[in-house]
Design a protein that fits this description.
- It is a single chain.
- By secondary structure, the chain is mostly helical.
- It has one domain.
- Helices cover 75% and strands 3% of the residues.
- The chain contains ten helices and two strands; from the N terminus they run H-H-H-H-H-H-H-E-E-H-H-H.
- Strands 1-2 form a two-stranded antiparallel ribbon.
- The chain is globular and about 55 Å long.
- The two termini are 38 Å apart.
């Protein structure tokens, strides 16, 4: 069996396990919500993989984008009574804007300087969320009921099982999008930046722009995971 065939078999086994997780998790004394969290962290890990694995830049502040997605949902549901879809979109947009806001300081930095700056901004977001307790709940966090999905005459409440399969479907879609992204000319350029950025610039490509787009995509992936 070749390595490619082995990869296909392994992927098929993982897909089957994920589809049957609600039946398997009780055997391991795990609540399905824990498996859901694992899937969401896997989506968030794609953002780190895009920046560190393919672009070669250590993204240590992913928790900030993840948290912005979380707070986008929490604040919109608590203070604006947003529905399920609306709150998810607010979380993604907030993560995107947060990433865009700090990107000006990051796109021209490389190596450990890029990583240290992401840590610094991550800590800034953390202290704002921690100290602004009147809005964010501070250390106690925020508690609210999961909003219903409303579309026309449809009013659907997501319970743990349906929420798991929703997150699993989003995970598969994110995985497919990531697969196409890294195999596109854009993805190949990111790999080239990691291997030899000077040569990329000599070819007439603005590597800073590619890093900016990669950073924004990473922020959206992490924000989506945090929002869900």
């Amino acid at each position: 069996m070749s390595l490619r065939q082995l990869g296909y078999v392994t992927s098929a086994i993982v897909v089957v396990i994920l589809l049957l997780a609600p039946k398997i998790s009780p055997l391991a004394h795990l609540d399905i919500s824990i498996v859901t969290e694992v899937i969401l962290f896997a989506i968030c890990a794609m953002s780190v993989n895009l920046m560190f694995g393919y672009t070669g830049l250590p993204l240590f502040g992913t928790a900030a984008f993840f948290g912005l997605g979380c707070y986008g949902v929490s604040l919109s549901v608590t203070y604006m009574h947003a529905g399920f879809v609306e709150s998810i979109l607010v979380g993604i947009v907030l993560a995107f804007l947060g990433t865009l806001g700090i990107s000006w300081f990051l796109v021209r930095r490389r190596g450990i300087y890029f990583g240290l700056l992401t840590i610094a901004f991550g800590q800034i977001f953390y202290f704002v969320a921690y100290r602004w307790s009147s809005v964010t709940g501070g250390e106690d966090g925020m508690t609210f009921a999961r909003p219903h999905f409303k579309l026309g005459g449809i009013n659907f409440a997501f319970h743990e099982l349906s929420m798991y399969y929703l997150c699993l479907g989003v995970f598969f879609l994110a995985l497919i999008a990531f697969w196409y992204l890294i195999r596109s000319p854009f993805g190949h350029t990111l790999v080239a930046i990691k291997q030899n950025e000077v040569r990329v610039r000599h070819l007439g490509l603005n590597s800073d722009r590619f890093v900016l787009v990669a950073l924004l995509v990473a922020g959206v992936f992490a924000g989506l995971a945090g929002a869900l």
